[in-house]
Specification:
Elements (H helix, E strand, L loop, with lengths): L3 E6 L6 H12 L3 E3 L5 H9 L6 H15 L4 E4 L5 H13 L3 E8 L2 H8 L2 E3 L6 E3 L27 H21 L4 E7 L4 H12 L2
Parallel strand pairs: 1-3, 1-4, 2-3, 4-7
Antiparallel strand pairs: 5-6
Helix pairs in contact: 1-7, 3-4, 4-6, 5-6
């Protein structure tokens, strides 16, 4: 395998972080998560499905990439905007790294339905689904044993629908500006985390 970077993108509840973790374990790559780039703003913006401004996000992304100093990476929910995509492509191009996008696919109705049973750890941010990805101990995070809770943005269906439609608009925008430089794999995200990852493995031939 040559130098490779993978973007994991998809609508809310599609399992981006879970698939990013599994792919990182499979390939031995580090993960950069969108929620960790400007952590002091992630919860505040995420609750209302708002974006962290590029002038704050991009310098922090650059710092993390430079500190990592590895072109072999998994990017979880990064980029979100055209400006972020242009920066990321340029950073990887300078390091002669191929860029692929794993795009998880769910309908708006499926996202709304999944949100009803989604829980998250308020400390580490790990997410769970009562049917598709239940915690090992009911109500508690597998990673740090903190009590799980509903995300603020998951309690209002209008906010959930806004998140889905914003995602659809944004992903079309940022993928268009780098479409000639990426390989895109569209993956059906229905079913369990394990079932979806089997589709990812088959698509990537890993």
């Amino acid at each position: 395998m040559g130098k490779e970077a993978y973007i994991l993108t998809g609508p809310p509840t599609s399992g981006k972080s879970s698939q990013a973790s599994l792919l990182a374990q499979r390939l031995g790559f580090p993960v950069i998560r969108g929620r960790d780039i400007v952590p002091e703003l992630s919860d505040q913006c995420g609750s209302f499905r708002n974006l962290i401004p590029d002038h704050l996000f991009i310098p922090n992304l650059k710092r993390l990439l430079d500190e990592l100093n590895s072109p072999l990476i998994i990017l979880d929910n990064v980029p979100r905007t055209s400006e972020q995509a242009i920066f990321l492509y340029g950073w990887l191009k300078d390091r002669k790294t191929n860029l692929s996008v794993v795009k998880l696919v769910l309908s708006e109705e499926e996202v709304v339905e999944r949100t009803k049973k989604r829980l998250a750890c308020p400390v580490c941010g790990e997410t769970y689904h009562l049917d598709l990805k239940p915690p090992k101990i009911d109500g508690f995070c597998d990673i740090d044993s903190n009590l799980l809770a509903k995300r603020a943005g998951d309690t209002d269906e209008k906010t959930v629908v806004k998140g889905f439609r914003d995602y659809q608009r944004l992903v079309i925008g940022w993928m268009k500006v780098i479409e000639n430089h990426i390989v895109v794999y569209e993956i059906d995200a229905k079913g369990t985390v394990k079932e979806t990852f089997q589709r990812v493995e088959e698509a990537l031939d890993i």
